[in-house]
Amino acid sequence: MHWREAVERVWKWLIGTAALLEILTALLLVLLLSFVLPQSPVSPVDEAAFSRWTASIRPTWGSWVAPLALLHWLSLRTSLWLRIPLALLALITSARLAHLAATWRERTAAERGCRLLVGVGAFLLLAGWVVGLRWGWTVSEVTAWPGEALYLPERGLTYLPVEGDRRLVCYGYGHYLLRDDTDIGLEAKAYDEDGALVPLATSTRGATQEKVRLVLNPQNPEAYFAIPSAGLIFRASFQQDRVAGDSPLLIQIYRSASGELITETVLRGDGSLLTETLNLQLKSVLLPQMRVVYNPGAPLTATGWLLLFLSGLIGWWIRARRGDAFARPEYEKSVEQEAL
């Protein structure tokens, strides 16, 4: 008999409102964590790629990286923290629909509609997760220069310029840009004594160009460029003690032949460096570091949450009406007559 009582208790829990609310609360907490914490664009199963990614966020998150990775909180989309609540949601939905079918004639039209909405909403939540897991992707550490389109060569996609300080930007169906951090962008141009542009290079084998752009952050704190015609190498270093709204960079000039340090200065905003024959114009700007996410299941998930919220309102309305009916004098009189 004990096992029958246990089965009955489990069944009552599955078809009850408390179980549904507990699972939905757990799912909301997991989704909230996925927005607060950085999420890996690769699965932890790919240990090499996952280790490289965790190393890139260690300058920002420090000693928190190891415990968060151990708890799988940096890969919530594919972790058991999400899969277990979703599996329980599927089980609860199946049990509630089976119970609804068995008691269909005993229920009012409003109760039937409410429980059907719960089933459809839960199904859309599950479908959205499966679709996103199967066809979705994420590209991290994407830098957007002010007023310029965002280009992803590995995906062949271009997004319109990101305006303002918006945390989340939506681009069409399932495409989202999330702001993760802020980088420092450095733009450099050099002029000779006559005011003509002097070619710059970012590597010894790279082609020269009229201006160079460099991106610095705690993960990539140093960058170099050179003026081959003048035999000069420039080193830009990210300063860890920057304050909010400021972007100091340490700029150093070396002779390429001897490695001798000629001069150095701290750059804040725009500035210039003068040598005997050159004028180096520098401009530093704060750049939003974006995470580009393609999740084709997100609209399904959002619709599922909306239907679940709507079913909750309908359920509250049904309970309120039922409570009002119990409080009416006609109901009390009928109860007294039945007692007599």
Index terms:
340 residues; alpha+beta; 13 strands; elongated
Structure in words:
This protein has eight helices and 13 strands. It has 340 residues and is of the alpha+beta class. The strands form three sheets. Strands 1, 4, 5, 6, 7, 12 and 13 form a seven-stranded antiparallel beta sheet that branches. Strands 8-9-10-11 form a four-stranded antiparallel beta sheet, with no helix packed on it. α2 runs antiparallel to α5 and α6 packs antiparallel against α7. 22% of the residues are buried.
What layout of secondary structure does this protein have?
Layout: H1 2-15, H2 17-36, H3 47-61, H4 65-70, H5 80-102, H6 109-135, E1 137-143, E2 150-152, E3 157-159, E4 168-170, E5 175-191, E6 197-198, E7 211-216, E8 222-227, E9 232-238, E10 249-255, E11 261-267, E12 270-274, E13 279-294, H7 298-327, H8 329-339
Antiparallel strand pairs: 1-13, 2-3, 4-5, 5-6, 5-7, 5-13, 8-9, 9-10, 10-11, 12-13
Helix pairs in contact: 2-5, 5-6, 6-7
Q: Helical proportion?
A: 40-55%
Largest sheet: 7 strands, antiparallel
The coarse overall form would be elongated
Listing every helix as H and every strand as E from the N terminus to the C terminus, the arrangement reads HHHHHHEEEEEEEEEEEEEHH
Terminal CA distance: 38 Å
What integer is the average pLDDT?
83
Radius of gyration: 30 Å
Helix segment tally = 8
Q: Care to count the β-strands?
A: 13
Low-confidence stretches: 325-340
Strand content: 25-35%
Structural classification: alpha+beta
